[in-house]
Amino acid sequence: MSEPSVQDVADWWATAVSRVEPDVIELRGRPIQELIGTTSFVGVIWLLLRGAPPTPGQQRLLEAALVSSVDHGPHAPSIAIARMAVTCGIGINGAIASGVNTLGDVHGGAGEQCMEMLAEVGRRAAGGTGIDDAAAAVVAGWRDHVRYLPGFGHRFHSVDPRREPLLSLVRESVAAGVVDGAYLRAAEAVERNLATGRSRPVPINVDGLTAVVYGELGFPPPLARGLFVLSRSVGILAHAWEEAGQGRRNKGPIPPSILPTYGGPS
Where is the stretch described as Disordered (predicted)? Predict the structure, then answer.
């Protein structure tokens, strides 16, 4: 085996995302100085992930989805943990990392899972099955191995307040030809299925709504979680910064005056 060359090392880190050399910074072939002041942050996210700028309609949808997920209060584990962490002296970056690291399959993964479910509905419908029959079959299959159907229902909201604005934007985008509407149709069919025989419906929630948006925009399911992490990081940062200014040290999950219930031997 020949000795590795400088070119071997350079090829080891080959990337099409950015080019950084003395006096040169390019993102997907576009000089950074041309992007600064002319391209939005959301536009740069799209550019880096997709390789080309978004259309105005694509950017509007992506921005709406990112805005919808930024925060859900300190009862969300990612927010609560970041607030506690910053009082432990680890700094703002450590607090953000602590919060982000809780965004797993249960807290933060429902959007990715919902995208997979809706894609399955779409595949069945494309194969000739009626959309409602496809939704019924997929829902039944998912319920065999999950307790909660990802993207539908909410433990706090009878109807997620983010539902109508996001659904309206997607419907407008379908009408304008910005997106196809396959994920929207699948989500609406699942929602109809879940409402069958119930006095109270099980409406789509923000995870399902963003799954629809990301699916319509052509992102693969794993990026739904990555984009959620980007969005929720904004709320995590804001809460950690607020907590840092309150002067607490070693903040725990409950006030010191409240003792946890002891269940061991007396």
Answer: 246-266
